[in-house]
Amino acid sequence: METIKPSQNSPIGIFDSGLGGLTVLKSLEKILPNESFLYFGDTAHVPYGTKSAETVIRYSQHIMDFFQKHETKAVVIACNTASAVAYQQLQQIYKIPLFDVVTPSVEYSINITKSKNVGVVGTFSTIQSNAYTKMFKKLGSGCFVKEVPCPLFVPIIEEGWADTAIAKNIAETYLKEFQDCNIDTLILGCTHYPIMANTIQDVLSKHIELIYSGKTVGIKLKEYLKNQNCENSSNTSQSVKYYVTDFPQKFDELGSRFLGRQLNNVTHIPIV
Amino acid sequence: METIKPSQNSPIGIFDSGLGGLTVLKSLEKILPNESFLYFGDTAHVPYGTKSAETVIRYSQHIMDFFQKHETKAVVIACNTASAVAYQQLQQIYKIPLFDVVTPSVEYSINITKSKNVGVVGTFSTIQSNAYTKMFKKLGSGCFVKEVPCPLFVPIIEEGWADTAIAKNIAETYLKEFQDCNIDTLILGCTHYPIMANTIQDVLSKHIELIYSGKTVGIKLKEYLKNQNCENSSNTSQSVKYYVTDFPQKFDELGSRFLGRQLNNVTHIPIV
How many domains does chain A have? Predict the structure, then answer.
């Protein structure tokens, strides 16, 4: 990855098709308490998971142009669909250090799995892309990987029903696909899914460990910044600015559910 | 409504944020067997139901420009969100005779309800707009109107689970809101919902009549074309052309589920 040398005190960019990536931001804030962030939610085009790869790449380029203009020192693609279909192309086009959410979770899972059987849940398009299976193969893990699409998890989370009997029923229907696979590790391959982690864990055997992409990409980003001597050295407190392309329904409600607090400093960027 | 005089043999335009409007097309084909249609699905921006009114109006204008260029003799907004938030503005801008899906269903319901208590189900944004309640009031119906958002109906239909126990469970959860309202008429205020009509009817008292917007707008459009002496008089057989702004996941599967047959003559219009 040919990248530009980032400036220590510049912010870190995070983007997602919508607000789901706020779960990643929440993890990054904890792991990197001295860093500041720009969060970009492409809410006018949400969801990416139902769009073609070509369209997702086009939208992602507009966001990367925005981050380039704002001189972010690194960018996290906090969206599994964009990570799966746009990461490689964006790496070739932009010189900003770029982190996807697929690779770190795969690396982390390879390190902890004992059964060498790993499960992945995600949206239809993420699973259809086979991005996780390909990455496990690329890293020569020798793991058996079972990927299962769970398209109803996002809408049920957005409805606020993540901890209901209906959510459990839906989770049972999807997750029974794993029952004969002897997995000990399950990657939550969608940034919405941490909100539903209790229900998912409830349906699975207790010994199966859930992998959160916010945590795994955070660990990787921290290492990178340290190695590059690029950690924020100023004494200013952590700040976050939010940019969205639309103010959708339930914006405040959803945002605070994902982030665990109210969103402030939100700027509307109508056309990207 | 100041409109241009349509040409008899021109096609009728139909648009939706995605493929749900195909259920309206299906009804129109039956009611108007001599007419030809252009169907426009704005699949790069689907769903409209989670976008702001401003954004939905902008997208709808692009589609109306397309229909204007193609000289359609009338346009049906086969999308409840666009009908609710963009219809009036589009009427002021364009001279093409324009039909929404809210007004005809309200007029039809006023004619058939005996209890004068009418229910409406739709997406969050359609219900939030209060478009149905406002139209019942505007027409001086004297009806009591109860509107209930059912945000999970669309994703459960798109998952192909419309006739499952989970769908019934979700429908029971939403529709119990109507149990003390003595409604005898329920407007399906979303073009997806006809696919789930059996489950919805199963949960409700048998005497409650479901209202399909494809049927009600079809009857109104037929009357209009007759009054204007604008029915297609040529002997050519009915034709349909489809235009979409993206080829999303499950495109063929969804399209054929909504339409009851395969989609042919599909043209991709990348940027609208």
Answer: 2
Q: What is the pTM of this model?
A: 0.86
A44 and B CB contact within 8 Å = yes
B215 touches chain A (CB under 8 A): no
Short-list A3, A10, A4, A56, CA closest to A241: A10
- Considering the domain architecture, whether residues A83 and A112 belong to the same structural domain is answered as no
- pLDDT tens readout for residues A13-28: 999 999 999 999 999 9
Judged by CB atoms closer than 8 Å, whether chains meet at A249 and B44 is answered as no
Q: Which of A51, A155, A247 sits opposite B248 (nearest CB)?
A: A51
On whether any CB of chain B is under 8 Å from the CB of A268, the answer is no
| Residue B7 burial (CB count, 10 A) | 12
Dihedral sign from CA coordinates of A251, A253, A259, A263: positive
The interface pTM score, or ipTM, of the predicted complex is 0.81
Q: Which of A43-47, A183-187, B252-256 is modeled with the greatest confidence?
A: A183-187
Q: Is residue A3 part of a domain?
A: no
A2 occurs within a structural domain: no
Tell me whether residues A249 and B46 touch, CB distance under 8 A: no
- Point out the residues of B that are catalytic: 79, 190
Specify whether A47 is located in the same domain as A116.
no
Check if B55 contacts A (Cβ < 8 Å): yes
The verdict on residue A5 lying in a domain is: no
Domain span holding position A220? 12-100+215-268
Q: Which of B171, B187, B213 is the last residue of a domain?
A: B213
Would you list the DSSP string of B23-70? HHHHHHHHH-TT--EEEEE-TTT--GGGS-HHHHHHHHHHHHHHHHHT
pLDDT band at residue A89 under the 50/70/90 scheme:
very high
Residue A3: the pLDDT is 57
Q: What would the pLDDT profile of B62-71 be if each residue is shown by its tens digit?
A: 999 999 999 9
Cβ contact, residue pair B152, A151, below 8 Å: no
